[in-house]
Design a protein that fits this description.
This protein is α+β, with helices and mostly antiparallel strands and 488 residues long. The chain has helices at 4-13, 19-80, 83-91, 152-203, 207-211, 219-295, 302-332, 345-362, 381-398, 452-462, and strands at residues 99-105, 111-116, 125-131, 142-150, 340-344, 367-368, 376-380, 403-409, 413-419, 466-470, 473-479. The chain folds into three domains: 16-195, no CATH class; 231-337, Helix Hairpins; 338-479, Histidine kinase-like ATPase, C-terminal domain (Heat Shock Protein 90), CATH 3.30.565.10.
Length: 488
């Protein structure tokens, strides 16, 4: 759904008050008017040519009519060559303003009588032959000519009249065409103007008004309006669905936030209680181990000594688990401090093997350290020994004998590996076994408290290293010790 800022930006980008549609109307009107003016010019040109043709025809007809009228009365006088009679005939002509000069000539073309009406006649002369009475064979002999020259003023007046009429017709056609073009432009732009207003309303989020816009005008404009209404309707429906989905998502997020907060408080309470219980158990367990150590000096038979030793080992294992819980909590919160020193891998392996040798023997396991690189590991010795012990205990509890520990040196890393002959971690659970309280045997069933491998991962990462597992082989990879190889 558009925000208020987006609406203002869109409205600024859209033409205000349908100026786009008005501009289109003006352009359409101008284009149509230009076409009309061109058409009117063509009509005026055609009318002018027709007027010139009509003028020439009228001049010819007028000259011919005057010449025929004079010839009808001057036939006998021309035949007799009577100049006085011919002059009298010419004197009877009316001065109507259209005649410049009339001349009567004999058969040889010599002028016999002339009457001048206009001092500046044109060169346009109409000549009409005059014939006498037919002879016995019907042949008429020419007795003379009548030459008529029309007045320049009359011809110019007639030309002006024809031109004015052509211009009036052209002006009327042009004016009517321009008015029609402006009307058509406004009529065509009206639906576009409504569409422009509807676009502004849609941009402001008023989809109802936008979809109710009336659609009229030419077929193409109606098609555009229908498409616009369909598009706005689709956008309105989509925004409605999106708004509903957003509301549902916001409600789900609120519920999830509440659930996360409740879970966070629960985890904090659990961690606080666990830390309190573990811390309270550590003292009594230490006291039990101390008492069992004191009892070892008593006079006991062999069977009792074995039971005492087993109880002492179990108490130490429980105390070790308490230490693991405390250390895991510290490392998860970044509150553990390391005392780093270069320690030979042989020393780490030797002390770790010695710490669990008794338990391994009871379960029928042998602990092997095949010959390999003796490399120095920059680490907290006490913490790294516990890491190796946890890996060995994990192999003794869930794997198959024998258990091997190997150290090697690669290009930029020191690798400590612990492996047994068992099936190892089920495929797909390599990352899961390192999570706190997640422990699985090779058959997929949950075993133990699941803190040993979590402790291994956190302690290794605290040293800047990483842990990986492939089947029954666990590898600890650390950056190469800057001190180089340790002495054997």
């Amino acid at each position: 759904m558009p925000t208020s800022s987006e609406n203002s930006e869109v409205q600024e980008a859209l033409p205000g008050k349908s100026t786009g549609a008005s501009g289109l109307a003006v352009r359409l009107a101008l284009l149509a008017s230009s076409l009309v003016v061109l058409a009117a010019g063509a009509v005026g040109f055609s009318l002018t040519r027709a007027a010139v043709a009509d003028l020439n025809r009228e001049v010819d007809d007028r000259g011919l009519a005057i010449a025929r009228g004079v010839a009808a009365r001057a036939g006998d006088a021309l035949a007799d060559g009577d100049r006085r009679a011919l002059a009298a005939i010419l004197e009877t002509l009316w001065e109507e303003g259209d005649i410049a000069r009339v001349e009567l000539a004999g058969p040889t073309g010599r002028a016999l009588a002339t009457r001048q009406f206009d001092a500046a006649p044109l060169d346009l002369v109409t000549a009409y032959p005059v014939t006498g009475e037919p002879d016995a064979e019907g042949y008429r002999e020419s007795v003379g000519l009548v030459r008529v020259t029309l007045s320049r003023g009359w011809i110019e007046a007639r030309r002006a009249a024809y031109t004015a009429r052509a211009l009036r017709v052209t002006g009327v056609v042009a004016a009517a065409g321009v008015l029609l073009a402006v009307g058509l432009g406004l009529a065509m732009a009206a639906p576009l103007r409504r569409l422009a207003r509807a676009s502004a309303q849609a941009a402001a989020g008023d989809y109802g008004a936008a979809t109710d816009v009336p659609v009229a005008g030419p077929r193409e404009v109606r098609a555009l309006g229908e498409a616009f209404r369909a598009a706005v309707g689709a956008v309105a429906r989509r925004e409605g669905d999106l708004r509903t989905a957003n509301d549902a998502l916001n409600a789900a997020n609120a519920a999830l936030s509440e659930a996360n907060e409740a879970l966070r408080r629960t985890e904090q309470a659990r961690d606080a209680m666990t830390h309190m219980l573990v811390h309270d158990l550590k003292g009594p367990l230490g006291n039990v181990v101390t008492l069992l150590t004191v009892l070892e000096s008593a006079d006991l038979d062999a069977e009792d000594r074995d039971l005492l030793a087993e109880g002492k080992d179990r108490c130490r294992a429980l105390l070790q688990r308490v230490e693991d819980l405390l250390d895991v909590a510290r490392m998860e919160h970044g509150r553990i401090s390391l005392h780093l020193e270069p320690v030979p891998s042989s020393r780490l392996f030797g002390e770790s093997i010695e710490a669990i040798r008794r338990l391994a023997a009871e379960k029928g396991f042998t602990l092997e350290a095949p010959p390999g690189d003796d490399v120095a590991v920059l680490c907290d010795r006490r913490l790294m020994e516990r890491v190796l012990q946890n890996l060995m205990l994990n192999a003794v509890r869930h794997g198959r004998p024998p258990v091997r520990v190997v150290a090697s040196s690669e290009a930029d890393e020191v690798v400590l590996a612990v492996e047994d002959a068992g099936a190892g971690v089920p495929p797909g659970r390599e990352a899961q076994v390192f999570e706190p309280f997640a422990s699985f045997s090779p058959d997929g069933r949950r075993r133990g408290a699941g803190l040993g491998l979590a402790f291994v991962r956190l302690a290794t990462e605290a040293h800047g290293g990483r842990v990986a597992v492939r089947g029954a082989r666990f590898e600890l990879r650390f950056p190469r010790d800057p001190f180089g190889r340790a002495a054997a």
